[in-house]
Amino acid sequence: MRVVLDTNVLVAGLMSRNGASHQILRGIALDVVNFAISVPLFLEYEDVLKRPAMVRQTGLSAKDIDMILDVIVANGHQTPLDFMWRPQLRDADDEMVLEAATNGGATAIVTFNQRDFLPAATTFGLRVITPADYLPTIRGKLP
Q1: Which secondary structure element, helix H or strand E, spans residue 36, and what is its range?
Q2: I need a labelling partner for 103 at 20 to 30 A (CA). Which of 1, 37, 88, 135 fits?
């Protein structure tokens, strides 16, 4: 099952070592998460994770965040954006997530903001699931 991860999943995974989002980050590091990523979505990840408030809240250094981003880009399925479907969503910042999913052969978007992606995601045959809903897909592959 290929997915696209909304930025809020990465943020939650770095903010707490408890919960499904952190387990998903572990799965990315172990290369057991099949996820699509595009250049705009990666740049969004980088922008959000490197914000001063985020750095303070996570206690991670800029070098730590760069290492996390390196793992994300190395283990993700790089997706060219052959088609842009804008506008589809109420929040323009979410469009890059939907575009990565539609262009990257994803079957689901993993997010805490399910209603932000509905009903547009279902128009493209995508499920919108929470990190907790996705976790069983990779749990057996995690040590």
Answers
A1: strand 36-37
A2: 135
The per-type count for the chain, helices as H runs and strands as E runs, is 9, 5
What does the block give as tokens for 45?
A: 């990840």
Segments of the chain with pLDDT less than 50? none
Q: What are phi and psi of 26, to 5 degrees?
A: -60, -40
Q: Give this prediction's pTM.
A: 0.94
d(CA 25, CA 86): 29
Strand arrangement, sheet containing 127-129: 3-5, 108-110, 127-129
What pLDDT sits at residue 86?
64
Q: What is the pLDDT of residue 83?
A: 65
Residue 58: CA count within 13 A, CB half-sphere:
23
Q: Where are the domains of the chain?
A: 3-139
Strand spans (E) along 41-102: 77-78
